[in-house]
Amino acid sequence: MGATGRRNAPGGRRPRTLGPVTKDPLIGRLVDSRYEIVDRVARGGMATVYRAQDRRLDRLVALKLMHPHLADSPDFVARFRREARAAARLSNPGVVAVYDQGSLDGVAYLVMELVEGPNLRDLIAAGPLTVREALGLTAQVLGPLGAAHRAGLVHRDIKPENVLLPADGSVAKVADFGLARAVTEVTQTTTGNVLGTVAYLAPELITTGSSAPCADVFSVGVILYELLTGSQPFAADTPIQIAFRNVHEDVPAPSLQLPDLSERVDALVAAMTRRSPQDRLADADAALTRLREVVSALSDAELAVKRGGATGSVRTQEVLAANAEAARTAMLATDGAENEPDDVDAPADAATPGAGLRTVSLPIGSIAPDEAAGSRDGTTRSLDRRQAARAAGAQEETAKVARHSRRRPRRRTVVAAALLLAAAAGGGAWYFTTGPGRTVPVPQIAGMTAADAQAEVEAAGLVWGAPTRAYSDTVPADSVISSSPDAATRLHPGDAVTPVISRGIEQKTVPDVVGSSQDDATTAITDAGLSLGAVTKTYSDSVASGMVISSEPVAGTTVNHSSAVAIVVSLGRQPAVVPDVTGMSVEDATTTLEAAGLTLGAQSEAFSDDVASGLVISSSPASGAEGYYHGDSVDVTVSKGPEMVTVPNVAGMSEQEATTALKDAGLEVEVSRVLGGLFGTAHSTDPAAGTSVRKGSKVTLNVV
EC annotation (predicted)? Predict the structure, then answer.
């Protein structure tokens, strides 16, 4: 799921359109005094997505609220919160951004970037795509996945529903990193609880639960197959049958359904969906490189191939047209080195006739420059037969002139010039092939291990210079990042080539920020060369408000310099309102208080004519009282029922004595005199003596 538009489903199932018949009680509610819920976007198996207005930053966001019935499951809560931490570690335009995290009435929520537009599932269902469009969309998925893999994260739930296409034509976005988990922390899924949608799961995730970047590559390969053909590779009646086929059958070539498809695209799908992880493309970067090689080798006609059937909806065409530039950039993006020519021409002086030779000024005669010119690679050519004949003719003509002239020194000069020219022809060849004018190209050593690169340089007759070392996010440690001079530059044998050797990805240590204020923690994290990730705020009984409870990764962990550190900040003790527990049993009162975050305190008993025995008469503090917090206790007074007394035996007493005895017993007395009460003596009572009655009951005293 993720920050979605109205058509993008949470969790991993197709969204259910929510009609206006029943109003969601959360619509209009203000969350965390900041996010006003505007309307409900979609509902999935794990959470509901709402469109909300961030009042603080005045922007629309997506608020993803976990279903209440899952709130008691630690596994689901951890999985839900892991989405925020995973996405916060990535800073890539192709990943849905996570802004905030918290809880509403005890139910966890995330606040994310709102992406208005369809997802890949909508695009597949709407109509056929060309090979160019399918490869362009696939390249946009591989880009952010490559960033995740370099950060040590595996998504594990790549499918069309989790690829969102912004309506503005910006790059496609990968959502729902809730299943992602650091490869260095956990390398296997929970036994018996394989996550993700089965049609896109790599065989090893199904059989052993092991997850690696190549598992995501398998999922993207299945998506590419579906973009090309409009259907998944395997069909079956139940998910378990599809899983069985994933494990035991190779993904068929898409050209079986698309006969005009280039075999290069078939090979790409096969390389991404090999059943054995060792035979599959290792990660998203490797898959993207292979995809770009395929695109560069395909003709326009091959890129325009698409399956038969409908031409696609108008909406589909609009989305693809808007996305065209992002797709082109994703398919064709290269670094600067790929744009450099493979060979560099020799230096200008090496191509100049007679380069490196002393210039000779001839006093008389004329010899065409090309007769003494060297080849473009610096080797001087020998005079051909015509040049030799011409030179001999010139010498003969000079001899004739000399015989009829007295100027002998001039003849000697011409002969000397001819000899020098002959020497230049032969000497130039030596100079540029084995002499001091010889040059060799610097070999291409970028990406090689230092040992292999040194052997390559020395084999070319060059010297391995003192290496410098630098960190690199892309070149493995102890491999060559670059060289000075650059590859293909021509040097004289014995010249030095100075390499830059990778130290690998720069590592940083997570500082200890627990107990610090949020501002101090932010400063400490940035001073450590890391970035602040998601800031989650939650209540704490032990950490003061505004102070950091924990960090992820924990203090002392060594991480890549590009990593983000997420922190949990305390809101202080969670306020609680005392509920009304009067009339409840002690057990029910305890449950009600615990649900409100409180505990049952001292119990006292009292008689009550109004409250049955065993039920709560009152609480202290009384219901509705404020200023109390989670964990505080509430005292209760429990009823013993009405107080009972026994009617005393007053027979034979005087009327006055009997009346006093009954009143002392807590009874009301009504005197009935028989025959006028002539003797003034108590005869009996009604109820009779020994009867148990409520205290305060009326008793009739019969006096004779």
Answer: 2.7.11.1
Residue among 278, 183, 1, 298 at smallest CA distance from 560: 183
Listed residue (265, 188, 193, 201) closest to 232, CA to CA = 201
User: Residue 406: CA atoms inside 13 Å, Cβ hemisphere, count?
Assistant: 0
Domains recognised in the chain with CATH numbers = 30-113 (3.30.200.20), 120-333 (1.10.510.10), 348-433 (no CATH), 440-502 (3.30.10.20), 507-570 (3.30.10.20), 575-639 (3.30.10.20), 644-703 (3.30.10.20)
pLDDT for residue 313 = 61
Residues 534 and 85: beta-carbon distance below 8 Å: yes
Distances from the Cα of 545 to the Cαs of 49, 536, 567, in angstroms?
29, 13, 14
Instruction: Count other Cβ atoms within 10 Å, centred on residue 60.
Output: 13
User: What pLDDT sits at residue 42?
Assistant: 81
**Band (381; pLDDT cuts 50, 70, 90):** very low
Residue 182's alpha-carbon distances to 177, 185, 206, 525, in angstroms, are 11, 5, 19, 20
Q: Look up residue 88 and give its two tokens.
A: 């916060």
The backbone region for 55, taken as left when phi is positive above 0, alpha when psi lies in -120 to 50, beta otherwise, is alpha
| Alpha-carbon distance values, 548 to 31, 106, 487 (Å) | 22, 20, 51
- Residues 611-633 have pLDDT tens digits of 999 999 999 999 988 889 998 99
Mean local confidence (pLDDT), 527-538: 93
AA identity, residue 646:
T
- Amino acid making up residue 166: P
Give the Cα separation of 112 and 84 in Å (integer).
Answer: 9
* Whether 686 is catalytic: no
Query: Which residues make beta-bridge pairs with 440?
Result: 491
| The two three-digit tokens of residue 530, written as one number | 């890391």
Long-range contacts of 255-261 (CB under 8 A, 24+ apart): 257/228, 257/229, 257/231, 257/307, 258/228, 258/229, 258/305, 258/306, 258/307, 260/305, 261/131, 261/228, 261/305
Q: Which amino acid is at 480?
A: V
291/139 Cα distance (integer angstroms): 7
Does the global pTM surpass 0.85?
Answer: no
Centre a 10 Å sphere on the Cβ of residue 568 and count the other Cβ atoms it contains. 19
Q: Which two tokens stand for residue 214?
A: 């190549």
Q: For the residues 131-147, what does the mean pLDDT come to?
A: 94
The alpha helices in 196-338, defined as continuous H runs, are 203-207, 213-229, 239-248, 263-272, 284-297, 300-303, 314-332
H-assigned helices in 151-188? none
pLDDT value at 390 more than 90: no
Kindly name the residue from 157, 216, 266, 285 that is annotated as catalytic.
157
- CA proximity to 513, closest of 564, 561, 562, 547: 547
**pLDDT single digits (tens) 299-329:** 999 999 988 755 556 666 777 777 778 778 8
DSSP annotation of 347: P
C-alpha closest to that of 656 among 689, 632, 680, 629:
680
Q: At what angle do helices 263-272 and 284-297 cross, to 10 degrees?
A: 180
Supply 579's token pair. 């509920």
Pull the structure tokens for residue 265: 């695209």
How far, in Å, CA of 418 to CA of 109, rounded? 94
- Report which of 109, 131, 129 is spatially closest to residue 120, judged by C-alpha positions: 129
For residue 34, give the H/E element and its range.
Answer: none
Task: Round to whole Å and give the CA distance between 703 and 673.
Answer: 5
What's the DSSP call for residue 14? P
